[in-house]
Amino acid sequence: MSDAIAGDEATVTVLLLRHGRTGLNASGRLRGRIDTPLDEVGRQQAAALGRFFAGVPLAALAASPLSRTWDTASAVAESHPGLVPEADPDLADRDWGRWAGELEAEVISRFGSLDAAPGVEGAAALAARARRAIERLAARCGGRPVAAVAHEAVNRAVISALCGWVGDGELPQPTGCWNQLVSAGGVWSAPVVGAVPGDGRVPLGAGRLLPGGPLGG
User: Fold this and answer.
1) Close Cβ partners of 44 (under 8 Å, ≥ 6 residues apart)
2) Residue 170, phi then psi, degrees to nearest 5
3) Could you report the per-residue pLDDT of 103-124, keeping only the tens digit for each?
4) Nearest 10 degrees: CA dihedral of 193, 112, 102, 162?
5) Counting beta carbons within 10 angstroms of the beta carbon of residue 142, is it exposed (0 to 12), middle (13 to 18) or buried (19 or more)?
6) Number of helices (H) and strands (E), helices first, in the chain?
7) Strands annotated E in 20-77
8) E strands, the chain, where?
9) 126-to-5, 27, 93, 94, 184 alpha-carbon distances in Å
10) How far is CA 23 from the centre of its chain?
11) Percentage helix, strand, coil, to 5, in the chain?
């Protein structure tokens, strides 16, 4: 895998991962700032991500400080001697306020959308902080890929903000997935979105795109 991602000073590659599954994920409940741990499936997904990215020469690894993301990042770091995950509060899950722990479908049924539920962190604020985190991380690449482990809402916000994606219902982010974001000449694209280890998709060099082309520029 070490030569699967090509990097240079003019091109930035960010691998954006989602944490493994938790019990709240499995039950369809909003997680937010509840510090719920990985379940057995989630631990297996985290280990699979660690194996998948074992040969990628990561320059830095950031993660949301919540345990489900931190433990997933730690599984990735295990195969990279000397690489220590760094907590970034800007990667923390969306704040669902008093709706955290509630069934997502019930909140949507009551208010029409998650955005409309009172007390939920605004979409613009979420996108702004998530973008800051990714841009800070990207600035440290030094010609090598960097990685971040975050959450479904955060990943969707980042991809939408950087690549101009509209309609997050069509932006799959299953637990244990990964995305590849590439900045070439300051223009971001997402050649890989919502992939999971074993599905046949691998990180690609900036000059190679999956069939159908990238998202964004």
Assistant:
1) 20
2) -105, 15
3) 999 999 999 999 999 999 999 9
4) 30
5) exposed
6) 6, 7
7) 60-63
8) 11-18, 60-63, 86-87, 146-150, 178-184, 187-195, 215-216
9) 29, 24, 9, 7, 24
10) 19
11) 35, 20, 45
Give 215's pLDDT tier (boundaries 50, 70, 90).
very low
Place of tokens 């297996």: 44
What distance separates the 2 farthest-apart alpha carbons in the chain?
A: 49
Nearest CA among 17, 28, 19, 16 for reference residue 68: 19
Instruction: Say whether pLDDT at 85 is over 50.
Output: yes
CA 55 vs CA 49, 107, 210, 217: distances in Å: 11, 42, 21, 28
Least confidently predicted of 20-29, 93-102, 167-176: 167-176
**pLDDT digits 0-9 by tens, 150-206:** 999 999 999 999 998 765 457 899 999 999 999 998 899 998 999 999 998 887 543
Place of tokens 């944490």: 19
What pTM was computed for the model? 0.89
Q: How many residues does the chain have?
A: 217
